[in-house]
Amino acid sequence: IAGITQAPTSQILAAGRRMTLRCTQDMRHNAMYWYRQDLGLGLRLIHYSNTAGTTGKGEVPDGYSVSRANTDDFPLTLASAVPSQTSVYFCASSESGYNEQFFGPGTRLTVL
Amino acid sequence: GQNIDQPTEMTATEGAIVQINCTYQTSGFNGLFWYQQHAGEAPTFLSYNVLDGLEEKGRFSSFLSRSKGYSYLLLKELQMKDSASYLCAVMDSNYQLIWGAGTKLIIKP
């Protein structure tokens, strides 16, 4: 692994289903982030974690949850997917909360 | 509220120079970042400014004026591979990044 990986690359999901997007980094970065990117809008922060064992809410947290059991992994869960959660999801990490962020390749999610 | 403004789309010619502007209004300021994002790919870091002035990095330069809430990204000797979206982001008082919608740059031969 080099950098940040995300899985799956893309997914089509029925509304109401539960889904977990996976994110793993091997850079030993303390901070990790989940964003969604929608056409015509800037990246919007969903949740973040400044260090293992802690998480915080971003701009658009409703309908999403995260956990940070260790430094490397930061999964994002949609408990009951809705069509408005159709988006491209990017995971990112940074050495601390003050540095540039490095992004994973993204997950394209479609909720029908 | 917090707001980042940048043009939606710009067109430039291969070999020329282009300046992409970004204005911001945020609660606090802890630096401004520029990222490049090719279609279908992840954003990649280009530059960071926290003090007023110009930061040069090869063909790319970034300028910041904190008193005016203004930054620009200058791309010189444009190449076709520079066709991408350029994202401006400001780190606010909570050390969270506030992102602009991005400027799609189209390079014509």
Biggest interface reads:
A-B, 18 and 21 residues
Oligomer: heterodimer
Query: Roughly what is the average pLDDT of chain B, rounded to an integer?
Result: 96
Mean pLDDT of chain A: 96
Amount of helix of chain B: under 10%
* Helix-strand topology string of chain A: EEEEEEEEEEE
H/E element sequence of chain B: EEEEEEEEEEE
Number of helices of chain B: 0
Low-confidence stretches of chain B: none
Structural class of chain B: mainly beta
Number of strands of chain A: 11
> Which word captures the global form of chain B?
globular
User: Count of helices of chain A?
Assistant: 0
N-end to C-end Cα span of chain A: 32 Å
Question: What do you see in this structure?
Answer:
The complex is a heterodimer of chains A (112) and B (109). Chain A has 112 residues and is mainly beta. Helix content of chain A is 0%, strand content 46%. Chain A is built from no helices and eleven strands. In chain A, a hairpin with a 6-residue loop joins strand 5 and strand 6. Chain A is globular. The N and C termini of chain A lie far apart (32 Å). Chain B is mostly beta strands and 109 residues long. Helices cover 0% and strands 57% of the residues of chain B. Chain B is built from no helices and eleven strands. In chain B, strands 2, 4, 5, 9, 10 and 11 form a six-stranded mixed beta sheet that branches. A five-stranded antiparallel beta sheet of chain B has the order 1-3-8-7-6, with no helix packed on it. The radius of gyration of chain B is 13 Å and the shape is globular. Classes of the chains: A mainly beta (112), B mainly beta (109).
List key phrases describing it.
heterodimer, A: 112 residues, mainly beta, seven-stranded mixed sheet, four-stranded antiparallel sheet, 11 strands, 46% strand, B: 109 residues, six-stranded mixed sheet, five-stranded antiparallel sheet, 0% helix
Write the SSE topology:
The complex is a heterodimer of chains A (112) and B (109).
Chain A: E1 4-7, E2 10-13, E3 19-25, E4 31-37, E5 44-49, E6 56-57, E7 64-66, E8 76-78, E9 87-94, E10 102-103, E11 107-111
Parallel strand pairs in A: 2-11
Antiparallel strand pairs in A: 1-3, 3-8, 4-5, 4-9, 5-6, 7-8, 9-10, 9-11
Chain B: E1 3-5, E2 9-13, E3 18-25, E4 32-37, E5 44-49, E6 53-57, E7 60-65, E8 70-75, E9 84-91, E10 97-99, E11 103-108
